[in-house]
Input
Amino acid sequence: MTSVPVQTEYDENQIQVLEGLEAVRKRPGMYIGSTTTRGLHHLVYEIVDNSIDEALAGFCTEIQVTIEKDNSITVVDNGRGIPTGIHPKEGVPAVELVFTKLHAGGKFGGGGYKVSGGLHGVGASVVNALSVFLEVEISDGSHVHYQRYERGKKCAALKQIGDTDKTGTKVHFKPDGEIFDDLVYSFDTLLLRLREQAFLNAGVTIVLRDDRDDAPENKKEETLCYEGGIKEFVTYENRNKEAIHPDVIYVNAVRETCEAEVAMQYNDGYSENIISFANNINTTEGGTHETGYKAALTKVINDYARKYGFLKENDENLKGEDVREGLTCIISVKVTEAQFEGQTKTKLGNGEMRSLVEKMVNEKLGEFFEENPSVAKIVVDKALTASRAREAAKRARENTRRKSALESSTLPGKLADCSDRDNTYTEIYIVEGDSAGGSAKQGRDRRFQAILPLWGKMLNVEKARMDKVYGNDKLMPVITALGAGIGDDFDITKIRYGKVVIMADADVDGAHIRTLMLTFFFRFMRPLIEGGHVYIAQPPLYKISKGKTDRYAYSDAELQQILAEMEDGRQPAIQRYKGLGEMNPEQLWETTMNPETRIMLQVNLEDARQADETFTILMGDKVEPRRKFIEDYSSTVVNLDI
Output
């Protein structure tokens, strides 16, 4: 027998209309991406971007951003100030429209802005809608005007609160705890974005201040101003790397309503770092401007190599990946009618920007190489070396595939595979050491858990090209077990396990192994991290036993808490685990592998550039940046000279 669903009415009464900013509060993710800390910080960017638009228009030279004691935010600029006059059609002050109506602003062709990132006109109103309160003060050169809103609704009419001879806008808001999971702002996260804006707007001063009581002294205030613009941006991005030619290469061009500029410099590393912007918005997914640049760069270097005999008649052309190895490049374009994909603006779609950037780089980079043959030779030599390494990697990959095809089993000998093949819930533990691997094999659930023991430290891929990865006895078992390839050949659809779990000892060596493995995944299997497939196991540090009761502590603080709870006159037995191998299979299962009781950290990639910089610092050749990183982030005092 089948049940018949109860018929419910569907008529005009079921059609819901959300008035004003209700839609934003109902579906905040549509407007700011998410309600996590990323969305929280996005609110600040939306307000700052309005001040940046004033700078682009030539009316703003200083922007101050303050994290207040209560984690509210104040943004002050010395631009023209949002208009306060009565809008002719709406009958309310223009500033009120900006903060209470979606798609209201001076960026829709009315002459207020020639170039702007905020073309949707929803930024200020969205921040207002998602804040407990928002206050705006506007100085128009004669008077100071003030209005307050609560959860998007005005509390009273706009009023004059004083006189002034200055101009500018001050916005003070506090994000709503009903909307956001976390209300605590990160100074470093805001600093990263504001530094970008200072580089992109040469000469504009941006000050970030932290007035919270717990702010470290060295993070109370940062003043950012870069007269060199994106040339200084490239130098900053390369600060932890060794540049292979002294000066940053810079080209720019203007065509009708479009502008483009490119700054670039090569370093001795193996990864490319291209960061693109359109109207000061970081286009993390690239777009037409980035496509045009890559095409032109490949052509210019190939043409130069052919012309001066670096490439012989029968040699194949250099590929894009060859000419971009070790490249740091900033692309910044300005366009009047910017076409972005979605409110978060991660990809530029303007076709005219491809032709402008491509033509500019073809002509001006070509001229630069002709005028600077020593730099051109360095760049071409690096590309040729990268090409040879790519061919060596290709041969090694083909040899590996042929060898695997001739063997009875293509999986690593030490791999204890699981019986199920559904990668929606299978998982592989990459375990430090044979001893821990043995315990993990005995303690696991064989249906869905695979174990791959690794002995010793693996290759530091930060200092190696892909051809060195193939054949490496520590990395090849991982590549083979996962089954999805590496580099450009990586195919996430072929991954054999839904979770890839790094399980290492809770000591310095274990931390090093985790970092080496994460560096490898980031450099050669990045979609694995982007897709949320990588996890870090959290084995306990202590076992506390009292009578028939066993409890586990994962930190010193948790140990003290458990000891306090067990305090009844009898002293419990405390076992400090020095390594995974000290646990028997049952303990390892119970504490670290049982999905019902284990603790695991999922590795997420919130900011690829920050991750790239961190891996360069931790695993690169330069010692001083690594020393500073350890000093800044270590919770204990260590002697770094030992």
